[in-house]
Amino acid sequence: MTTHDDAHRDTAADRPPTPVELAWAEHLGAGSDLLDRLVIRYRERQRRYHKIGHIEAVLVSIAALTEHEQVNDLGAIIAAVLYHDAVYEPQHPANERASARLARRDLIALGWADDRADAVAGLIEGTKTHLNPLSSDAAVMNDADLAILGADETEYGRYTNAVRDEYNHLDDREWNDGRVAVMQAFLDRDSIYATTTGRGLWEASARANVSAEIASIRS
Which of 13, 61, 74, 109 has a CB 3.0–4.6 Å from the CB of 147, allowing a cystine? Predict the structure, then answer.
């Protein structure tokens, strides 16, 4: 009799592991069924930016940041990255809270201690505003999630177009007003990024990108 895990392993053996699979194997270990369900979520039809590619990009940014920034629990950060957009409905005001609850439930099922699963949930909920991270782990998590703001002009354009597509339920005026408010709030901060490394890597380009986007919307 072939089980789901057997089939999963057979399929995975036919190709190199993905970055998400590698991160899961290293930091979460067991639970291939849970990983499969998580990946399916990132393939939902309403997603244009918040897909598996975003998770892979955040993992790359985590690696860049942790080359220089000290963290307390890298495994918890990776778990938070994998789950932080697991629930994503553009018209839902509490995606982060729902994603945090899902992460906590799954991690407890994998045998994580309650306090460690709670820490992951807290990291996820912090991505709602990316403000005032309470720990070095939260600072790294927030900066990695915001790294896209400091991307090159072409990639930044793809990002903004994809997010606009996700919010296609808004008319242009609603989108423009909301987007300017959100992006101006980033510019109004003393710094967009919470870590020294994040500021060095992305602050200048992020401010240039966000300023140009706002100017384009207002023109």
Answer: 61
Structure tokens at 117: 């699963």
Between helices 74-83 and 136-145, what is the axis angle to 10°? Answer: 40
Q: pLDDT tens for residues 112-127?
A: 999 999 999 999 999 9
DSSP state, residue 92: -
Q: Which residue has the tokens 């460690």?
A: 116
Average pLDDT along the chain: 93
Above 60 in pLDDT, residue 19?
A: yes
CA distances from 84 to 44, 69, 200 (A): 15, 21, 24
**How many other CB atoms are there within 10 angstroms of residue 84's CB atom?**
28
Burial of 218 (0-12, 13-18, 19+ CB in 10 A): exposed
The single-letter code of the amino acid at 153 is: E
d(CA 50, CA 161): 12
